[in-house]
UniProtKB/TrEMBL annotation:
<feature type="binding site">
    <location>
        <position position="57"/>
    </location>
    <ligand>
        <name>substrate</name>
    </ligand>
</feature>
<dbReference type="InterPro" id="IPR009010">
    <property type="entry name" value="Asp_de-COase-like_dom_sf"/>
</dbReference>
<keyword id="KW-0456">Lyase</keyword>
<keyword id="KW-0670">Pyruvate</keyword>
<comment type="similarity">
    <text>Belongs to the PanD family.</text>
</comment>
<keyword id="KW-0566">Pantothenate biosynthesis</keyword>
<dbReference type="GO" id="GO:0004068">
    <property type="term" value="F:aspartate 1-decarboxylase activity"/>
</dbReference>
<dbReference type="Pfam" id="PF02261">
    <property type="entry name" value="Asp_decarbox"/>
</dbReference>
<keyword id="KW-0210">Decarboxylase</keyword>
<keyword id="KW-0068">Autocatalytic cleavage</keyword>
<feature type="modified residue" description="Pyruvic acid (Ser)">
    <location>
        <position position="25"/>
    </location>
</feature>
<protein>
    <recommendedName>
        <fullName>Aspartate 1-decarboxylase</fullName>
        <ecNumber>4.1.1.11</ecNumber>
    </recommendedName>
</protein>
<feature type="binding site">
    <location>
        <begin position="73"/>
        <end position="75"/>
    </location>
    <ligand>
        <name>substrate</name>
    </ligand>
</feature>
<comment type="pathway">
    <text>Cofactor biosynthesis; (R)-pantothenate biosynthesis; beta-alanine from L-aspartate: step 1/1.</text>
</comment>
<keyword id="KW-0963">Cytoplasm</keyword>
<dbReference type="InterPro" id="IPR003190">
    <property type="entry name" value="Asp_decarbox"/>
</dbReference>
<comment type="subunit">
    <text>Heterooctamer of four alpha and four beta subunits.</text>
</comment>
Length: 116
């Protein structure tokens, strides 16, 4: 049996833009992706701290050290520029694996979205 377990989180980053006309996803600075262990194409869950919206999409790579956090496609309607969001991912594993698994949680600078 597999269970779904919290895998990683980018805690409290600022939305730098939103693009309603892009086909979908969330663009995340490559540095933040690597630090959090989130991979390109991975399903991510978004919580908007400003308005309480919760939704999911998939991650795409943004320019390294750009601080970019851009919601694309329909998800762009759920955020505004400068909103603070939390980005989370989950993984399936056996209960035995889950007992020793350690999630990756990063805390970027809310003003720049870069790691300090």
């Amino acid at each position: 049996m597999l269970i779904e377990v919290f895998k990683s989180k980018i805690h409290r980053v600022r939305v730098t833009e939103s693009d309603l006309n892009y086909i979908g996803s969330i663009t995340i600075d490559e540095e933040l992706l690597e630090a959090s262990g989130i991979i390109v194409g991975e399903r991510v869950f978004i919580v908007n701290v400003n308005n309480g919206e919760r939704f999911d999409t998939y991650a795409i790579k943004g320019k390294r050290k750009s601080g970019e956090i851009c919601l694309n496609g329909p998800a762009a309607r759920r955020v505004q520029k400068n909103d603070i969001i939390i980005i989370m991912s989950f993984a399936q594993m056996t209960p035995e694996e889950a007992k020793t698994f350690q999630p990756k949680i990063i805390f970027p600078d809310e003003k720049t979205n870069l790691l300090t």
